[in-house]
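A reminder before we start the practical. When you read a complex entry, don't treat the lines as separate problems. The point of joint prediction is that each chain is placed relative to the others, so the output describes one connected object in space. Small molecules and nucleic acid strands, if listed, are placed in the same frame. In the example below there are two entries. Take a minute to note the order of the lines before looking further.
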Amino acid sequence: MTVNSELQRVNEWAPMRGFANMFYKENYAWWRTRRWWVNAIVWIAIICSLVAFMLFVLPGQAAANNDPSLAEMGGPLALAQNMGLTIFFQMGALAIGIGTIILCQGLIAHEKETGLIEWLLAKPVTRRAYILSKLASSLIAVLVLLIGGPALVTIGLFYLRMGLDFPLIPFLQGTGILIAHTAFYLCLTVMLGTFFSKRSPIMGIAVGTLVGGNVLAGFISQTLYFTPWGFGRVALSLASSEPVPAGMLWPPLISTIILSAVFILVGLVKFEKSEF
Amino acid sequence: MNENGFVLETFGLEKSFGDVHALRGVDLKVPAHSIFGFLGPNGAGKTTLMKLLLGLSRPTRGSGKIFEHDIVKESVAIRERIGYLPQQPRFVDDMTARENLRFAARFFFSGPADKMEARCAEMLELAGLADKADRPVKGFSGGEKQRLGIALAQINYPDLLILDEPASALDPLGRKEVLEVMARLRKHTTIFYSTHILDDVQRVSDTVAILNNGELVTCGPIEQILNAQDGVVYSLTTKGYSESVERQLWMQDWVTQVELIHNNGVSTWQISVNDEASAEALLLRQVSQDPQVTVTAFSRKKYELEEVFMNLVEGGSDDRK
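Here is the predicted structure of the whole assembly.
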Protein backbone atom coordinates (compact mmCIF):
# COMPACT_ATOMS: atom_id res chain seq x y z
CA MET A 1 0.00 0.00 0.00
CA THR A 2 1.35 3.41 -0.93
CA VAL A 3 1.38 5.81 1.98
CA ASN A 4 2.39 9.42 2.03
CA SER A 5 5.65 9.39 4.00
CA GLU A 6 4.50 12.34 6.12
CA LEU A 7 1.41 10.50 7.33
CA GLN A 8 1.66 7.61 9.73
CA ARG A 9 -0.68 4.69 10.08
CA VAL A 10 -2.98 5.06 13.09
CA ASN A 11 -1.63 3.01 15.95
CA GLU A 12 -4.43 2.17 18.40
CA TRP A 13 -5.03 -0.62 20.87
CA ALA A 14 -6.53 -3.32 18.62
CA PRO A 15 -9.72 -4.03 20.64
CA MET A 16 -10.57 -0.30 20.57
CA ARG A 17 -9.45 0.38 17.00
CA GLY A 18 -11.31 3.39 15.63
CA PHE A 19 -12.47 4.71 19.00
CA ALA A 20 -10.65 8.06 18.81
CA ASN A 21 -12.07 8.94 15.40
CA MET A 22 -15.58 7.77 16.25
CA PHE A 23 -15.39 9.79 19.46
CA TYR A 24 -14.37 12.81 17.36
CA LYS A 25 -17.38 12.28 15.07
CA GLU A 26 -19.81 11.94 17.96
CA ASN A 27 -18.44 15.02 19.66
CA TYR A 28 -18.71 16.88 16.36
CA ALA A 29 -22.42 16.06 16.27
CA TRP A 30 -22.88 17.32 19.83
CA TRP A 31 -20.62 20.36 19.92
CA ARG A 32 -20.00 21.61 16.39
CA THR A 33 -23.60 21.92 15.34
CA ARG A 34 -26.42 24.01 16.82
CA ARG A 35 -27.41 21.01 18.88
CA TRP A 36 -25.40 22.04 21.95
CA TRP A 37 -26.69 25.56 22.35
CA VAL A 38 -30.27 24.61 21.51
CA ASN A 39 -30.18 21.97 24.24
CA ALA A 40 -28.32 24.20 26.67
CA ILE A 41 -31.00 26.88 26.33
CA VAL A 42 -33.95 24.46 26.34
CA TRP A 43 -32.91 22.57 29.48
CA ILE A 44 -31.91 25.64 31.42
CA ALA A 45 -35.17 27.28 30.41
CA ILE A 46 -37.31 24.27 31.36
CA ILE A 47 -35.73 23.50 34.72
CA CYS A 48 -34.40 26.84 35.91
CA SER A 49 -37.49 28.88 35.04
CA LEU A 50 -39.52 26.64 37.35
CA VAL A 51 -36.81 26.79 40.04
CA ALA A 52 -36.77 30.62 39.73
CA PHE A 53 -40.55 30.68 40.06
CA MET A 54 -40.34 28.62 43.25
CA LEU A 55 -37.55 30.79 44.66
CA PHE A 56 -38.75 34.26 43.80
CA VAL A 57 -42.49 34.19 43.06
CA LEU A 58 -44.13 31.39 45.04
CA PRO A 59 -43.16 32.52 48.57
CA GLY A 60 -44.50 36.03 47.86
CA GLN A 61 -47.77 34.58 46.57
CA ALA A 62 -48.05 32.29 49.62
CA ALA A 63 -47.49 35.24 51.92
CA ALA A 64 -50.03 37.37 50.09
CA ASN A 65 -52.60 34.55 50.34
CA ASN A 66 -51.76 33.84 54.01
CA ASP A 67 -51.04 30.25 52.96
CA PRO A 68 -50.78 28.07 56.11
CA SER A 69 -47.99 25.99 54.51
CA LEU A 70 -45.73 29.02 54.83
CA ALA A 71 -45.72 28.70 58.61
CA GLU A 72 -45.43 24.91 58.43
CA MET A 73 -42.31 25.19 56.22
CA GLY A 74 -40.66 27.70 58.52
CA GLY A 75 -41.07 30.93 56.58
CA PRO A 76 -40.74 32.20 52.98
CA LEU A 77 -37.03 31.37 52.62
CA ALA A 78 -37.47 27.78 53.82
CA LEU A 79 -40.47 27.36 51.49
CA ALA A 80 -38.46 28.76 48.58
CA GLN A 81 -35.54 26.40 49.29
CA ASN A 82 -37.77 23.36 49.70
CA MET A 83 -39.79 23.99 46.55
CA GLY A 84 -36.74 24.98 44.50
CA LEU A 85 -34.90 21.78 45.43
CA THR A 86 -38.01 19.68 44.85
CA ILE A 87 -38.34 21.05 41.34
CA PHE A 88 -34.67 20.59 40.52
CA PHE A 89 -34.29 17.07 41.89
CA GLN A 90 -37.69 15.39 41.72
CA MET A 91 -39.10 16.93 38.58
CA GLY A 92 -35.57 17.31 37.18
CA ALA A 93 -34.81 13.59 37.52
CA LEU A 94 -37.88 12.75 35.43
CA ALA A 95 -37.33 15.53 32.88
CA ILE A 96 -33.61 14.89 32.47
CA GLY A 97 -34.24 11.14 32.18
CA ILE A 98 -36.79 11.68 29.42
CA GLY A 99 -34.52 14.27 27.79
CA THR A 100 -31.63 11.79 27.75
CA ILE A 101 -33.80 9.15 26.13
CA ILE A 102 -35.12 11.58 23.50
CA LEU A 103 -31.66 12.89 22.63
CA CYS A 104 -30.01 9.46 22.51
CA GLN A 105 -32.74 7.22 21.04
CA GLY A 106 -31.32 7.69 17.54
CA LEU A 107 -27.62 7.30 18.35
CA ILE A 108 -27.49 3.89 16.67
CA ALA A 109 -30.98 3.57 15.18
CA HIS A 110 -30.54 6.64 12.97
CA GLU A 111 -27.36 5.22 11.47
CA LYS A 112 -29.10 1.90 10.90
CA GLU A 113 -32.01 3.67 9.19
CA THR A 114 -29.80 5.74 6.90
CA GLY A 115 -27.27 3.00 6.18
CA LEU A 116 -24.38 5.11 7.53
CA ILE A 117 -23.58 2.29 9.95
CA GLU A 118 -22.52 0.04 7.05
CA TRP A 119 -20.09 2.62 5.79
CA LEU A 120 -18.68 3.25 9.25
CA LEU A 121 -18.28 -0.43 10.09
CA ALA A 122 -16.53 -0.98 6.76
CA LYS A 123 -13.74 1.22 8.14
CA PRO A 124 -11.12 -0.16 10.55
CA VAL A 125 -13.28 0.32 13.62
CA THR A 126 -14.22 -2.41 16.08
CA ARG A 127 -17.85 -2.70 17.08
CA ARG A 128 -16.81 -2.25 20.70
CA ALA A 129 -15.20 1.09 19.83
CA TYR A 130 -18.30 2.13 17.87
CA ILE A 131 -20.62 1.60 20.86
CA LEU A 132 -18.29 2.93 23.55
CA SER A 133 -17.48 6.10 21.59
CA LYS A 134 -21.18 6.88 21.35
CA LEU A 135 -21.69 6.14 25.01
CA ALA A 136 -18.74 8.25 26.16
CA SER A 137 -19.51 11.30 24.03
CA SER A 138 -23.22 11.19 24.86
CA LEU A 139 -22.52 10.80 28.57
CA ILE A 140 -20.34 13.90 28.50
CA ALA A 141 -22.88 15.89 26.47
CA VAL A 142 -25.85 14.86 28.58
CA LEU A 143 -24.04 15.55 31.84
CA VAL A 144 -22.89 18.97 30.65
CA LEU A 145 -26.04 20.10 28.85
CA LEU A 146 -28.84 18.47 30.82
CA ILE A 147 -27.34 18.44 34.31
CA GLY A 148 -24.28 20.71 34.46
CA GLY A 149 -25.80 23.80 32.83
CA PRO A 150 -29.10 23.73 34.73
CA ALA A 151 -27.27 22.87 38.00
CA LEU A 152 -24.93 25.84 37.65
CA VAL A 153 -27.78 28.25 36.92
CA THR A 154 -29.82 26.75 39.78
CA ILE A 155 -26.89 27.22 42.19
CA GLY A 156 -26.66 30.84 41.04
CA LEU A 157 -30.39 31.34 41.64
CA PHE A 158 -30.14 29.83 45.12
CA TYR A 159 -27.19 32.08 46.02
CA LEU A 160 -29.17 35.03 44.73
CA ARG A 161 -32.11 34.08 46.91
CA MET A 162 -30.35 32.72 50.00
CA GLY A 163 -26.90 34.22 49.92
CA LEU A 164 -24.18 32.19 51.59
CA ASP A 165 -26.75 30.20 53.56
CA PHE A 166 -27.28 27.97 50.52
CA PRO A 167 -25.93 24.48 51.33
CA LEU A 168 -23.74 23.78 48.29
CA ILE A 169 -22.17 20.47 49.31
CA PRO A 170 -25.52 18.71 49.94
CA PHE A 171 -26.75 20.11 46.60
CA LEU A 172 -23.73 18.59 44.84
CA GLN A 173 -24.34 15.25 46.59
CA GLY A 174 -27.90 15.30 45.26
CA THR A 175 -26.56 16.14 41.81
CA GLY A 176 -24.30 13.08 42.01
CA ILE A 177 -27.39 10.90 42.45
CA LEU A 178 -28.98 12.66 39.47
CA ILE A 179 -25.90 11.78 37.40
CA ALA A 180 -26.21 8.07 38.28
CA HIS A 181 -29.93 8.23 37.39
CA THR A 182 -29.20 9.84 34.01
CA ALA A 183 -26.33 7.45 33.20
CA PHE A 184 -28.66 4.48 33.86
CA TYR A 185 -31.18 5.65 31.25
CA LEU A 186 -28.42 6.51 28.79
CA CYS A 187 -26.98 2.98 29.08
CA LEU A 188 -30.46 1.50 28.71
CA THR A 189 -31.12 3.61 25.59
CA VAL A 190 -27.78 2.66 24.01
CA MET A 191 -28.44 -1.03 24.70
CA LEU A 192 -31.90 -0.80 23.13
CA GLY A 193 -30.30 0.85 20.09
CA THR A 194 -28.34 -2.34 19.47
CA PHE A 195 -31.56 -4.37 19.42
CA PHE A 196 -33.86 -2.15 17.35
CA SER A 197 -33.55 -0.37 14.02
CA LYS A 198 -36.45 2.02 14.65
CA ARG A 199 -36.62 4.70 17.28
CA SER A 200 -40.17 4.05 18.45
CA PRO A 201 -39.51 0.80 20.38
CA ILE A 202 -36.38 2.34 21.93
CA MET A 203 -38.32 5.38 23.05
CA GLY A 204 -41.29 3.32 24.22
CA ILE A 205 -39.32 0.86 26.31
CA ALA A 206 -36.96 3.44 27.86
CA VAL A 207 -39.67 5.97 28.72
CA GLY A 208 -41.90 3.12 29.88
CA THR A 209 -39.14 1.99 32.25
CA LEU A 210 -38.68 5.53 33.58
CA VAL A 211 -42.30 6.57 34.01
CA GLY A 212 -43.74 3.10 34.60
CA GLY A 213 -40.98 2.35 37.10
CA ASN A 214 -41.83 5.41 39.14
CA VAL A 215 -45.49 4.43 39.15
CA LEU A 216 -44.66 0.81 40.02
CA ALA A 217 -42.46 1.94 42.90
CA GLY A 218 -45.53 3.63 44.37
CA PHE A 219 -47.21 0.20 44.63
CA ILE A 220 -44.20 -2.03 45.27
CA SER A 221 -41.82 -0.01 47.43
CA GLN A 222 -39.26 -2.88 47.52
CA THR A 223 -38.26 -1.95 43.95
CA LEU A 224 -36.77 1.25 45.35
CA TYR A 225 -34.00 -0.82 46.97
CA PHE A 226 -32.46 -2.00 43.70
CA THR A 227 -33.60 0.44 41.02
CA PRO A 228 -33.06 4.15 40.37
CA TRP A 229 -36.81 4.81 40.61
CA GLY A 230 -36.50 6.50 43.97
CA PHE A 231 -33.43 8.58 43.08
CA GLY A 232 -35.39 11.84 42.75
CA ARG A 233 -36.48 11.61 46.37
CA VAL A 234 -33.05 10.40 47.54
CA ALA A 235 -31.35 13.32 45.76
CA LEU A 236 -33.84 15.74 47.30
CA SER A 237 -33.20 14.35 50.78
CA LEU A 238 -29.43 14.68 50.32
CA ALA A 239 -29.68 18.21 48.94
CA SER A 240 -32.02 19.21 51.79
CA SER A 241 -29.58 17.76 54.35
CA GLU A 242 -32.30 15.40 55.51
CA PRO A 243 -31.59 11.79 56.45
CA VAL A 244 -32.08 9.26 53.66
CA PRO A 245 -34.24 6.28 54.74
CA ALA A 246 -32.16 3.23 55.63
CA GLY A 247 -31.15 1.15 52.62
CA MET A 248 -32.41 3.73 50.14
CA LEU A 249 -29.04 5.19 49.17
CA TRP A 250 -26.20 2.70 48.74
CA PRO A 251 -28.06 -0.51 47.72
CA PRO A 252 -29.99 1.10 44.84
CA LEU A 253 -26.93 3.19 43.89
CA ILE A 254 -24.67 0.14 43.65
CA SER A 255 -27.41 -1.86 41.95
CA THR A 256 -27.98 0.95 39.42
CA ILE A 257 -24.28 1.11 38.59
CA ILE A 258 -24.21 -2.68 38.12
CA LEU A 259 -27.37 -2.61 35.98
CA SER A 260 -25.90 0.18 33.83
CA ALA A 261 -22.76 -1.92 33.28
CA VAL A 262 -24.91 -4.94 32.43
CA PHE A 263 -26.82 -2.89 29.84
CA ILE A 264 -23.55 -1.93 28.20
CA LEU A 265 -22.26 -5.49 28.23
CA VAL A 266 -25.49 -6.85 26.75
CA GLY A 267 -25.40 -4.07 24.14
CA LEU A 268 -21.80 -4.91 23.20
CA VAL A 269 -22.55 -8.63 22.87
CA LYS A 270 -25.69 -8.01 20.83
CA PHE A 271 -23.95 -5.51 18.56
CA GLU A 272 -21.01 -7.85 18.03
CA LYS A 273 -23.45 -10.48 16.71
CA SER A 274 -25.50 -8.08 14.61
CA GLU A 275 -25.39 -8.20 10.81
CA PHE A 276 -25.85 -5.19 8.55
CA MET B 1 -1.90 -10.75 -2.60
CA ASN B 2 -1.18 -14.47 -2.29
CA GLU B 3 1.45 -16.46 -4.19
CA ASN B 4 -1.03 -17.06 -7.03
CA GLY B 5 -1.58 -13.35 -7.50
CA PHE B 6 -5.09 -13.20 -6.03
CA VAL B 7 -6.04 -10.49 -3.54
CA LEU B 8 -9.42 -12.02 -2.78
CA GLU B 9 -10.49 -15.64 -2.66
CA THR B 10 -13.65 -17.30 -1.40
CA PHE B 11 -14.11 -21.00 -0.76
CA GLY B 12 -17.64 -22.40 -0.90
CA LEU B 13 -19.08 -19.25 0.61
CA GLU B 14 -22.73 -19.62 1.63
CA LYS B 15 -25.22 -17.33 3.29
CA SER B 16 -28.75 -18.21 4.26
CA PHE B 17 -31.47 -16.12 5.86
CA GLY B 18 -33.79 -18.76 7.29
CA ASP B 19 -34.94 -20.82 4.31
CA VAL B 20 -33.67 -18.30 1.79
CA HIS B 21 -30.28 -19.22 0.34
CA ALA B 22 -28.75 -15.93 -0.72
CA LEU B 23 -25.39 -17.43 -1.64
CA ARG B 24 -24.65 -21.04 -2.55
CA GLY B 25 -21.06 -22.24 -2.47
CA VAL B 26 -19.38 -19.28 -4.16
CA ASP B 27 -15.74 -19.83 -5.15
CA LEU B 28 -14.27 -16.57 -6.34
CA LYS B 29 -10.74 -15.47 -7.20
CA VAL B 30 -9.93 -11.83 -7.85
CA PRO B 31 -6.52 -11.19 -9.48
CA ALA B 32 -4.43 -8.29 -8.24
CA HIS B 33 -4.72 -5.04 -10.23
CA SER B 34 -7.80 -6.18 -12.12
CA ILE B 35 -11.06 -4.32 -12.55
CA PHE B 36 -13.31 -7.16 -11.56
CA GLY B 37 -16.94 -6.77 -12.64
CA PHE B 38 -19.30 -8.72 -10.46
CA LEU B 39 -22.49 -9.18 -12.47
CA GLY B 40 -25.90 -10.45 -11.66
CA PRO B 41 -29.57 -9.56 -11.86
CA ASN B 42 -31.19 -7.79 -8.91
CA GLY B 43 -31.43 -10.13 -5.95
CA ALA B 44 -28.66 -12.42 -7.24
CA GLY B 45 -26.67 -12.03 -4.01
CA LYS B 46 -24.06 -9.45 -5.04
CA THR B 47 -24.55 -7.11 -2.07
CA THR B 48 -24.76 -10.07 0.32
CA LEU B 49 -21.36 -11.27 -0.87
CA MET B 50 -19.85 -7.81 -0.48
CA LYS B 51 -21.17 -7.55 3.07
CA LEU B 52 -19.56 -10.89 3.90
CA LEU B 53 -16.25 -9.67 2.51
CA LEU B 54 -16.46 -6.50 4.62
CA GLY B 55 -17.34 -8.30 7.85
CA LEU B 56 -20.77 -6.68 7.98
CA SER B 57 -22.33 -10.15 8.12
CA ARG B 58 -21.03 -13.65 8.67
CA PRO B 59 -21.11 -16.61 6.27
CA THR B 60 -23.37 -19.56 7.06
CA ARG B 61 -20.75 -21.87 5.53
CA GLY B 62 -17.47 -21.57 3.71
CA SER B 63 -14.72 -19.04 4.13
CA GLY B 64 -12.88 -16.25 2.41
CA LYS B 65 -9.56 -14.50 2.43
CA ILE B 66 -8.54 -11.00 1.46
CA PHE B 67 -4.81 -10.28 1.44
CA GLU B 68 -4.47 -13.69 3.13
CA HIS B 69 -6.58 -12.48 6.10
CA ASP B 70 -9.68 -14.44 7.10
CA ILE B 71 -12.83 -12.39 6.37
CA VAL B 72 -14.43 -13.33 9.70
CA LYS B 73 -11.55 -13.45 12.18
CA GLU B 74 -9.34 -10.70 10.77
CA SER B 75 -11.88 -8.28 9.42
CA VAL B 76 -10.34 -5.14 10.94
CA ALA B 77 -6.95 -5.97 9.38
CA ILE B 78 -8.71 -6.34 6.02
CA ARG B 79 -10.62 -3.08 6.43
CA GLU B 80 -7.31 -1.28 7.04
CA ARG B 81 -6.45 -1.99 3.40
CA ILE B 82 -9.71 -1.65 1.53
CA GLY B 83 -12.03 1.11 0.43
CA TYR B 84 -15.78 0.60 0.20
CA LEU B 85 -18.53 2.43 -1.62
CA PRO B 86 -22.02 1.25 -0.63
CA GLN B 87 -24.84 1.07 -3.16
CA GLN B 88 -26.30 4.27 -1.72
CA PRO B 89 -23.32 6.37 -0.63
CA ARG B 90 -23.74 7.63 2.93
CA PHE B 91 -21.99 10.50 4.60
CA VAL B 92 -22.02 12.27 7.92
CA ASP B 93 -24.70 14.79 7.01
CA ASP B 94 -23.54 17.49 9.42
CA MET B 95 -20.14 17.64 7.72
CA THR B 96 -19.01 19.18 4.45
CA ALA B 97 -17.31 17.12 1.74
CA ARG B 98 -13.87 18.11 3.05
CA GLU B 99 -14.84 17.31 6.66
CA ASN B 100 -16.17 13.90 5.59
CA LEU B 101 -12.87 13.18 3.85
CA ARG B 102 -10.91 14.37 6.88
CA PHE B 103 -13.03 12.15 9.11
CA ALA B 104 -12.54 9.11 6.85
CA ALA B 105 -8.78 9.78 6.64
CA ARG B 106 -8.42 9.80 10.43
CA PHE B 107 -9.49 6.16 10.58
CA PHE B 108 -6.22 5.35 8.84
CA PHE B 109 -3.70 8.13 9.27
CA SER B 110 -2.26 10.46 11.83
CA GLY B 111 0.29 13.14 11.13
CA PRO B 112 0.71 16.81 10.35
CA ALA B 113 -2.58 18.61 9.69
CA ASP B 114 -1.29 20.15 6.45
CA LYS B 115 -0.40 16.72 5.07
CA MET B 116 -3.81 15.41 6.01
CA GLU B 117 -5.40 18.39 4.28
CA ALA B 118 -3.25 17.78 1.22
CA ARG B 119 -4.51 14.20 1.08
CA CYS B 120 -8.12 15.40 1.29
CA ALA B 121 -7.49 18.02 -1.40
CA GLU B 122 -5.97 15.35 -3.66
CA MET B 123 -9.09 13.22 -3.30
CA LEU B 124 -11.40 16.19 -3.91
CA GLU B 125 -9.45 16.89 -7.09
CA LEU B 126 -9.70 13.26 -8.17
CA ALA B 127 -13.46 13.34 -7.67
CA GLY B 128 -13.77 16.71 -9.40
CA LEU B 129 -15.28 18.28 -6.28
CA ALA B 130 -12.59 20.80 -5.36
CA ASP B 131 -14.96 23.72 -5.94
CA LYS B 132 -17.63 22.18 -3.70
CA ALA B 133 -15.35 20.98 -0.93
CA ASP B 134 -16.77 23.20 1.78
CA ARG B 135 -20.45 22.80 0.94
CA PRO B 136 -22.70 20.57 3.05
CA VAL B 137 -23.08 17.19 1.34
CA LYS B 138 -26.86 17.35 1.72
CA GLY B 139 -27.09 19.59 -1.35
CA PHE B 140 -24.99 17.37 -3.64
CA SER B 141 -26.45 15.82 -6.80
CA GLY B 142 -26.51 12.03 -7.25
CA GLY B 143 -23.37 12.10 -9.43
CA GLU B 144 -21.52 14.33 -6.97
CA LYS B 145 -22.45 12.08 -4.07
CA GLN B 146 -21.26 9.04 -6.00
CA ARG B 147 -17.93 10.71 -6.84
CA LEU B 148 -17.50 11.84 -3.23
CA GLY B 149 -18.26 8.26 -2.19
CA ILE B 150 -15.47 7.00 -4.45
CA ALA B 151 -13.10 9.66 -3.08
CA LEU B 152 -13.95 8.55 0.48
CA ALA B 153 -13.36 4.93 -0.47
CA GLN B 154 -9.98 5.88 -1.94
CA ILE B 155 -8.78 8.10 0.94
CA ASN B 156 -6.56 5.41 2.49
CA TYR B 157 -4.76 4.39 -0.73
CA PRO B 158 -6.54 1.02 -0.57
CA ASP B 159 -5.11 -2.11 -2.10
CA LEU B 160 -8.66 -3.19 -2.92
CA LEU B 161 -11.67 -1.04 -3.73
CA ILE B 162 -15.07 -2.66 -3.23
CA LEU B 163 -17.80 -0.72 -5.03
CA ASP B 164 -21.43 -1.80 -4.82
CA GLU B 165 -23.31 -0.70 -7.94
CA PRO B 166 -21.21 2.45 -8.31
CA ALA B 167 -23.04 3.76 -11.38
CA SER B 168 -26.47 2.18 -11.36
CA ALA B 169 -28.41 5.14 -9.96
CA LEU B 170 -26.77 7.71 -12.23
CA ASP B 171 -27.73 9.34 -15.51
CA PRO B 172 -25.48 8.62 -18.54
CA LEU B 173 -23.23 11.61 -17.81
CA GLY B 174 -22.85 10.64 -14.14
CA ARG B 175 -22.09 7.04 -15.15
CA LYS B 176 -19.45 8.21 -17.59
CA GLU B 177 -17.81 10.32 -14.88
CA VAL B 178 -17.74 7.43 -12.42
CA LEU B 179 -16.33 5.00 -14.99
CA GLU B 180 -13.63 7.52 -15.83
CA VAL B 181 -12.66 7.79 -12.16
CA MET B 182 -12.52 3.99 -11.95
CA ALA B 183 -10.34 3.83 -15.04
CA ARG B 184 -7.97 6.42 -13.52
CA LEU B 185 -7.67 4.33 -10.34
CA ARG B 186 -6.92 1.01 -12.03
CA LYS B 187 -3.13 1.52 -12.04
CA HIS B 188 -3.09 2.01 -8.26
CA THR B 189 -5.45 -0.63 -6.95
CA THR B 190 -7.64 -3.66 -7.58
CA ILE B 191 -11.30 -2.77 -8.13
CA PHE B 192 -14.04 -5.27 -7.29
CA TYR B 193 -17.41 -3.84 -8.21
CA SER B 194 -20.91 -5.12 -8.63
CA THR B 195 -23.29 -3.95 -11.31
CA HIS B 196 -26.11 -5.03 -13.55
CA ILE B 197 -25.14 -2.55 -16.29
CA LEU B 198 -23.42 -4.83 -18.79
CA ASP B 199 -22.26 -2.03 -21.03
CA ASP B 200 -20.20 -0.56 -18.17
CA VAL B 201 -18.56 -3.90 -17.49
CA GLN B 202 -17.57 -4.39 -21.09
CA ARG B 203 -16.18 -0.86 -21.16
CA VAL B 204 -13.88 -0.98 -18.11
CA SER B 205 -13.54 -4.51 -16.72
CA ASP B 206 -10.90 -7.06 -17.53
CA THR B 207 -12.27 -9.88 -15.37
CA VAL B 208 -15.89 -10.83 -14.81
CA ALA B 209 -17.96 -13.08 -12.59
CA ILE B 210 -21.66 -13.70 -13.08
CA LEU B 211 -23.85 -14.57 -10.13
CA ASN B 212 -27.38 -15.85 -10.49
CA ASN B 213 -29.71 -17.02 -7.74
CA GLY B 214 -26.77 -17.02 -5.33
CA GLU B 215 -24.63 -19.26 -7.54
CA LEU B 216 -21.56 -18.32 -9.48
CA VAL B 217 -22.29 -19.27 -13.10
CA THR B 218 -19.01 -18.12 -14.64
CA CYS B 219 -15.81 -16.34 -13.66
CA GLY B 220 -12.76 -15.35 -15.67
CA PRO B 221 -11.15 -12.84 -18.04
CA ILE B 222 -13.83 -11.11 -20.09
CA GLU B 223 -12.38 -12.13 -23.49
CA GLN B 224 -12.26 -15.75 -22.40
CA ILE B 225 -15.90 -15.67 -21.36
CA LEU B 226 -17.00 -13.99 -24.57
CA ASN B 227 -15.09 -16.47 -26.73
CA ALA B 228 -16.28 -19.50 -24.83
CA GLN B 229 -19.85 -19.08 -26.03
CA ASP B 230 -21.21 -21.76 -28.36
CA GLY B 231 -18.05 -22.21 -30.43
CA VAL B 232 -17.15 -19.78 -33.22
CA VAL B 233 -19.73 -18.11 -35.44
CA TYR B 234 -19.08 -16.30 -38.74
CA SER B 235 -21.38 -13.73 -40.30
CA LEU B 236 -21.75 -13.40 -44.06
CA THR B 237 -23.82 -11.11 -46.25
CA THR B 238 -24.36 -12.18 -49.86
CA LYS B 239 -26.35 -11.28 -52.93
CA GLY B 240 -27.63 -13.75 -55.49
CA TYR B 241 -28.92 -17.31 -55.52
CA SER B 242 -27.66 -19.02 -52.37
CA GLU B 243 -29.33 -22.44 -52.28
CA SER B 244 -26.41 -24.41 -53.74
CA VAL B 245 -23.92 -22.70 -51.40
CA GLU B 246 -26.04 -23.57 -48.41
CA ARG B 247 -26.17 -27.20 -49.54
CA GLN B 248 -22.38 -27.31 -49.89
CA LEU B 249 -21.80 -25.74 -46.49
CA TRP B 250 -23.97 -28.32 -44.78
CA MET B 251 -21.74 -31.01 -46.28
CA GLN B 252 -18.59 -29.67 -44.58
CA ASP B 253 -17.45 -31.54 -41.45
CA TRP B 254 -16.47 -28.35 -39.63
CA VAL B 255 -19.87 -26.63 -40.08
CA THR B 256 -22.31 -27.31 -37.26
CA GLN B 257 -25.08 -24.84 -37.99
CA VAL B 258 -26.19 -22.60 -40.84
CA GLU B 259 -28.80 -19.92 -40.33
CA LEU B 260 -29.94 -17.95 -43.33
CA ILE B 261 -32.23 -14.95 -43.57
CA HIS B 262 -33.31 -13.49 -46.96
CA ASN B 263 -34.36 -9.87 -47.20
CA ASN B 264 -34.80 -7.86 -50.44
CA GLY B 265 -32.36 -10.00 -52.37
CA VAL B 266 -29.75 -9.88 -49.62
CA SER B 267 -28.94 -13.03 -47.64
CA THR B 268 -27.54 -12.83 -44.10
CA TRP B 269 -25.74 -15.96 -42.88
CA GLN B 270 -24.78 -17.08 -39.37
CA ILE B 271 -22.47 -20.08 -39.72
CA SER B 272 -21.38 -21.94 -36.60
CA VAL B 273 -18.22 -24.02 -36.86
CA ASN B 274 -16.31 -26.43 -34.65
CA ASP B 275 -12.92 -26.05 -36.34
CA GLU B 276 -11.76 -22.48 -36.44
CA ALA B 277 -8.67 -23.15 -38.59
CA SER B 278 -10.64 -24.94 -41.32
CA ALA B 279 -13.29 -22.27 -41.29
CA GLU B 280 -10.76 -19.47 -41.67
CA ALA B 281 -9.03 -21.28 -44.55
CA LEU B 282 -12.07 -22.56 -46.42
CA LEU B 283 -15.30 -20.77 -45.56
CA LEU B 284 -14.93 -17.59 -47.59
CA ARG B 285 -13.38 -19.49 -50.51
CA GLN B 286 -16.21 -22.01 -50.50
CA VAL B 287 -18.86 -19.32 -50.76
CA SER B 288 -16.99 -17.05 -53.19
CA GLN B 289 -16.32 -19.78 -55.74
CA ASP B 290 -20.04 -20.08 -56.52
CA PRO B 291 -20.55 -17.73 -59.52
CA GLN B 292 -24.21 -17.13 -58.58
CA VAL B 293 -23.26 -15.56 -55.24
CA THR B 294 -21.50 -12.28 -54.45
CA VAL B 295 -20.11 -11.83 -50.95
CA THR B 296 -20.62 -8.27 -49.67
CA ALA B 297 -19.53 -8.72 -46.03
CA PHE B 298 -17.67 -11.33 -44.04
CA SER B 299 -16.70 -11.28 -40.36
CA ARG B 300 -16.28 -13.39 -37.30
CA LYS B 301 -19.18 -12.77 -34.97
CA LYS B 302 -18.18 -11.05 -31.73
CA TYR B 303 -20.35 -11.92 -28.77
CA GLU B 304 -21.58 -9.07 -26.62
CA LEU B 305 -21.56 -9.53 -22.88
CA GLU B 306 -25.29 -8.99 -22.85
CA GLU B 307 -25.83 -12.12 -24.97
CA VAL B 308 -23.51 -14.13 -22.74
CA PHE B 309 -25.20 -12.82 -19.63
CA MET B 310 -28.68 -13.57 -20.94
CA ASN B 311 -27.65 -17.08 -22.00
CA LEU B 312 -26.10 -17.87 -18.64
CA VAL B 313 -28.70 -16.22 -16.44
CA GLU B 314 -31.73 -17.43 -18.37
CA GLY B 315 -30.17 -20.89 -18.66
CA GLY B 316 -29.61 -20.89 -14.91
CA SER B 317 -33.17 -19.83 -14.27
CA ASP B 318 -34.47 -22.54 -16.59
CA ASP B 319 -32.38 -25.15 -14.82
CA ARG B 320 -33.84 -24.07 -11.52
CA LYS B 321 -37.36 -24.56 -12.81
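Discuss with your neighbour: The interface with chain A takes residues 51, 54-58, 76, 79-82, 84, 86, 88-92, 94-95, 99, 103-104, 106-112, 115-116, 118-119, 152, 156-159, 188 of chain B (CB under 8 Å). What might explain this?
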